Amino acid sequence: MTDLHVLYISPSTLPSRTANAVHVVQQCEGFSQNGARVELLARRGSGSPAAARAQVLETYNVAFTNVRLSTVALPVRGAIGALAAIGLMRAIASRAARPTILSRNLYASYGLALAGIPHFYETHQLGLGRLRRLEHFILTRPFVRTILISAMLKTILEQHHQLRLKDALILHDAAPSGIVRLSQDKRQLARAELLQQAGLPPAPFVAGYFGHLYAGRGLEVIEAMAAAHGDVPFLVFGGNEADLASHRARAHPQNLHYVGYVPHRRAQKAMLACDALLMPYQRSVSIGVEGQDTARWMSPMKMFEYMASGNAILSSDLPVLSEVLRHGQNALLVAPDDTGAWIEALGRVRADVGLRDAIGLQAHNDYRQHHTWERRAAAILEASRP
C-alpha cells in the first residue's frame, strides 16, 4: 500500500486535550502503519510547525513515520472554517495525485461536496441548526462516503435527516496497536507505582476512571461505590480545571482521589495498573457542547483503551455500548442509574480473581482482533479502492 496517499482535513487544534485531537492523531498513525503517506491539516495554537510536531509526537506517543503534519497558526474564532478553506485548496491542488481524502471538518466536507470532489466524511455527532442543512447536502452527494462510529449513529443520523445512508462505513473508535496486557506480577508492581505516584499507600485492588467530568459521566455513581468500598482507592483521571475544583470542593469519600489531567501516554500506563476500570455513563451524556447528548450513539475511545489494558471493565448497559461490550464475556454491564448494582458488580470482580481475569483477557483479545487504529485505517483504505 506504499502508493497510497491520504489527505486528512481535521477540525482539531494540535496538541490539545480534546477527544477529537486524540482520534485524529491516532487515526493518522494508523494510516501510516498501513504504509500510506499522510498529510494531516490541523490548527496549532502557538509556536512553530516543528515545535508543534514534536509536541504531538510526545503528547500522543506516535511515530508519524509517514505523516506530514501541516499545522496553521489561527485564532480560535473561525479556525475550523479557515482550516476548511485551506483543506479545500489542498484537495484541489492534489487532484492529479488522487489522494484518499478524509474530513472530520464539516465545513471542509461541504466545500468538497460543492466542488464535486469524492471524499470520506466522518462525523461523531449530529449537525444542528444551520449546520444541519450543510450536513444534509454532504450526506446526499453520491461521491461522498460517510464514516460513523456506531450503528446507532447511522440510525439516528438517518432519522435526523430523513434519508437512507446506503454506503456508510460503521467503524467504532479504537486504541493504539501493540498495547501489551500485564502479567499478574507486573500488574502488582505497576499498581504499587501508580499509588506511590498518587501519594497513596499500597493496596491490593485499585479502581480507575478516565475521562471528562461532564454531566452524565457517572461521577455520582463512583462516589457511591467509593463510599461502599472504603478500603479501595478510586482514582479519577481527567477533567478541566473548573470541573476538578468543583468536584474536589464537594464532600466525597476519602478514598476517592481526583488526580486530574495527565498526558495520554501516562493515562494508558495507569489503565494497565488498575484492577477495575469504570465507565458509568448515564442515559444522557454531555460532551461539553450545548445540544449534543451522545449517550445514544457514542463510541468512547477510552472503552477501547480499557479493553486494550486487559483489565476488568464495569460499564453502563447502554444499547450503543453493547455493540462492542458483552456482559459476562468482555465486561460486566450494569444499569446506569442502579447504584446498588454498581456496588455489587465491583464486589464481584474484587472477590473473583478468575472472573476479572477472564473478562479482561477476552476484552484484550477483542481489542487486538478488531479495535486498533491500524485495523480501522485498513478498512478505510480498502473502502477507498476503485
Describe this structure in words.
This protein is of the alpha/beta class and 386 residues long. It has 2 domains: 5-174 and 372-383, Rossmann fold; 184-370, 3-Layer(aba) Sandwich (Rossmann fold). The chain is 43% helix and 17% strand. The chain contains 14 helices and 13 strands. Helix 4 links the parallel strand 4 and strand 5 (119-123). Helix 3 runs parallel beside helix 4. The chain is globular and about 65 Å long. The two termini are 14 Å apart.
Question: What labels would you give this structure?
Answer:
globular, Rossmann fold, 43% helix, 6-stranded parallel β-sheet, single chain, 2 domains, 386 residues, alpha/beta
Summarize the helices and strands and which ones pair or pack.
Layout: E1 5-13, H1 19-33, E2 37-44, H2 49-60, E3 67-73, H3 79-93, E4 100-103, H4 106-114, E5 119-123, H5 130-139, E6 144-148, H6 151-161, E7 169-170, H7 184-197, E8 207-210, H8 219-228, E9 234-237, H9 241-249, E10 256-260, H10 264-273, E11 276-279, H11 301-309, E12 312-316, E13 332-334, H12 339-351, H13 353-370, H14 373-383
Helix pairs in contact: 1-14, 3-4, 4-5, 7-10, 8-12, 11-13, 12-13
Level-1 CATH class name of the largest domain: Alpha Beta
Radius of gyration (Å): 21 Å
Beta-strand residue percentage: 15-25%
- Biggest β-sheet, characterized? 7 strands, parallel
CATH architectural grouping of the largest domain: 3-Layer(aba) Sandwich
Q: How far is the first residue's CA from the last residue's CA?
A: 14 Å
CATH topology of the largest domain: Rossmann fold
Q: Give the helix/strand class.
A: alpha/beta
How many E strands?
Answer: 13
Described by the principal axes of the CA atoms, the overall outline is globular
